[in-house]
Amino acid sequence: MSLTTQEVQKVARLARLAMNENEIETARSQLSGIFSLIAEMQAVDTSGIEPMSHAQDLSQR
Fold first, then answer.
1. Where are the domains of the chain?
2. Helix-then-strand count for the chain, H and E
3. How many CB atoms are closer than 10 A to CB 8?
4. Of these four, 31, 35, 38, 41, which has the most CB atoms within 10 Å of its CB?
């Protein structure tokens, strides 16, 4: 998913963040990368994999 500059400006305005054009472009690029990673992770077939209660399978004494 790729965000537009207008979408980032709208989110910044709603969050009451003052951002210049350079900051908006940086945020747009970073957020688009995050959304791409999320889409990539959602595409992984996890059926048949048992959910874990914690990301690291550790036990305490």
1. 5-42
2. 2, 0
3. 22
4. 31
